[in-house]
């Protein structure tokens, strides 16, 4: 299994300056590479409590300071963006990073984004689907003629620059709706399950739906590629110590849960560890839970929750994961970044073969 760090850029009180927070995000990615993680993702939000509104700029800074990390978006809020600009930004980043870009798209999950960009929240799913169709073509075709409802038409448009990767992936973020699983399965793209605030059963049902729809489109379910998120990873020598150290963070998360569209279904940390993606415990407990979740979801890449170097307690918990759990967890099989899993076959000129989804 592959593992990636992630940050959404939340900046709660007492707030850091924007520069301090953004510098810390880049430093966290450098730490992730040094700790042996395989990738690092940054979210995109347009709300007052976060500092990351421009993922490609931050990922470019990370690319300049790392050599191996895959560079994830988590997610690119495609419903409010122009696919042409998205394709240009990330193709540029792909070249500057020597082909390390991994885009995860989604419609977003905050009502404020529609107000900020002047879009009706009721048509976000339609916008997301149409803009995905255009983004897919911009990435896989050399010249595009296209028309739709939500942006001006294109005629014989040739996107620049070329991507360095011959067949870049577009992952589809999934949290609450089968509309994401349907779009991903129909396109033949990988799915990245949020797997954060809810119970395992909620996300397992969506992943199962994705694989069923994948098969309904005539594809082998074994070829479907899935990633999964986590609410937190915190490892300590004993379960009691891990619980004691993480409890204040869980309580703080409960306090701000009202900012999320879906309320947490857990009353306390014990419930969250038992029923959700809180990997909090001893090395043996966390490794066992990874195996159980992988059996349920069948995922091949796992993000390890928010990486924050400013908090010595959380950092110590992640360092313990990297040294005590990661070497064994890597033995869980995966096909990522070592073969063609999740990517279409390509011709010698790097064009995607006709009829093959990215």
TrEMBL record:
Coiled coil: none annotated. The keyword Oxidoreductase applies. Residues 1-299 form the Luciferase-like domain. Residues 345-358 have a biased composition (Basic and acidic residues). InterPro entries: Bact_Lucif_Oxidored, Luciferase-like_dom, Luciferase-like_sf. It holds the Pfam family Bac_luciferase. One of its GO terms (cellular component) is cytosol. Keywords: Monooxygenase, Oxidoreductase. Residues 335-358 are annotated as: Disordered. One of its GO terms (molecular function) is oxidoreductase activity, acting on paired donors, with incorporation or reduction of molecular oxygen. This is Flavin-dependent oxidoreductase, luciferase family (Includes alkanesulfonate monooxygenase SsuD and methylene tetrahydromethanopterin reductase). It comes from Microlunatus soli.
């Amino acid at each position: 299994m592959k593992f990636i760090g992630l940050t959404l850029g939340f900046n709660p009180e007492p707030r850091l300056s924007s520069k301090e927070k953004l510098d810390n995000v880049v430093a966290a990615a450098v730490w992730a590479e040094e700790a042996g993680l395989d990738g690092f993702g940054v979210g995109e939000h347009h709300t007052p409590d976060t500092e990351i509104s421009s993922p490609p700029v931050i990922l470019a800074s990370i690319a300049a300071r790392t050599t191996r990390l895959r560079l994830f978006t988590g997610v690119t809020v495609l419903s409010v963006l122009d696919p042409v600009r998205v394709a240009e930004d990330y193709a540029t980043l792909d070249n500057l990073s020597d082909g390390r870009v991994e885009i995860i798209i989604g419609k977003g999950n905050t009502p404020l984004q529609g107000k900020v960009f002047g879009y009706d929240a009721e048509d976000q799913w339609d916008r997301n689907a149409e803009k995905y169709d255009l983004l897919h073509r911009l990435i896989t075709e050399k010249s595009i003629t296209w028309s739709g409802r939500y942006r001006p038409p294109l005629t014989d448009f040739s996107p620049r620059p070329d991507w360095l990767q011959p067949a870049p992936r577009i992952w589809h973020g999934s949290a609450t709706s089968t509309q994401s699983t349907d779009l991903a399965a129909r396109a033949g793209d990988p799915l990245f399950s949020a797997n954060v605030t809810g119970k395992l059963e909620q996300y397992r049902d969506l992943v199962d739906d994705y694989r069923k729809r994948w098969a309904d489109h005539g594809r082998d379910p074994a070829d479907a590629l899935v990633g999964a998120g986590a609410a937190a990873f915190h490892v300590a020598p004993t379960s009691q110590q891990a619980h004691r150290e993480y409890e204040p963070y869980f309580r703080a998360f409960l306090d701000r849960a009202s900012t999320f569209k879906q309320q947490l279904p857990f009353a306390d940390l014990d419930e969250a560890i038992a029923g959700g993606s809180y990997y909090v415990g001893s090395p043996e407990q966390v490794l066992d839970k990874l195996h159980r979740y992988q059996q349920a979801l069948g995922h091949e890449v796992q993000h390890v929750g928010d990486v924050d170097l400013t908090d010595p307690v959380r950092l110590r918990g992640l360092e313990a994961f990297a040294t005590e759990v990661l070497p064994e967890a890597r033995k869980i099989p995966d096909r990522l970044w070592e073969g063609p899993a999740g990517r279409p076959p390509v011709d010698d000129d790097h064009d995607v073969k006709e009829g093959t989804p990215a």
